Amino acid sequence: MARYRGPVCRLCRREGARLFLKGERCGTGKCAVEKRSSAPGERSQGRLRRRISDYGLQLREKQKLRRTYGVYERQFRQYFAEAARRTGVTATMLLQTLERRLDNVVYRLGFASSRAQARQLVSHGHFAVDDRPVNIPSYLVRVGQSVAVVEGSRTAAPIVAAVESAGGRRLPPWLQIEGDSMRGRVISLPERADIDTQVQEELVVEYYSR
């Protein structure tokens, strides 16, 4: 399946929540969810009045989580299967896996204004893990590994702008910015309380456990 290339604000409106697909813009009054609370489509008002089934609720939470992190359905299923095999709470294991994706770590560290931008920057070779260039957005960063902007990209306009605007964004406690501000490190696995993604992950587990 090809990546969705339509207006991403429609995805936020469909899920009825801010997915922060446009970065800082989503926190302003320009957010489409604030302007138009209805789902896209001419029959959206009728859909909102109907009662949503349990399956519908589970599906919406799954779609919300998948779209927040920009993951294809097939890869998302693989993440869930791996989380289900691990020891611990499946829902938390799934969130930890999504958070450890390199594109998400780059976004959380403030080197990109959105996950979509982070995915593009990683694909173009602007980042290194433990000083080795990595251009795979889905690369899972392990505890103790560092993520840094490669030397030749430290003056790139998108990265500089993202770093400057990230001052007001809270750095998750499982990440740490090192001295030169262009390098960060994963110091622990994220706990559920550290993840600000607004989703009922238990419904996602129920969806795949049917």
What's this entry about, in short?
The chain has about 210 residues and is of the alpha+beta class.
Strand count, sense and barrel status of the largest sheet are: 5 strands, antiparallel
| Named CATH topology of the largest domain | Ribosomal Protein S4 Delta 41, Chain A, domain 1
> Can you tell me the residue ranges where pLDDT is under 50 for at least 5 consecutive residues?
none
Number of strands: 5
Alpha-beta content class: alpha+beta
Mean pLDDT level: 84
Task: Tell me what you see in this structure.
By secondary structure, the protein is α+β, with helices and mostly antiparallel strands. The protein has two domains: 8-98, Orthogonal Bundle (Ribosomal Protein S4 Delta 41, Chain A, domain 1), CATH 1.10.1050; 101-188, RNA-binding S4 domain (Structural Genomics Hypothetical 15.5 Kd Protein In mrcA-pckA Intergenic Region, Chain A). 43% of the residues lie in helices and 8% in strands. The chain has a five-stranded antiparallel beta sheet, covered by helices on one side. The longest helix has 16 residues, at 54-69. The two termini are 24 Å apart.
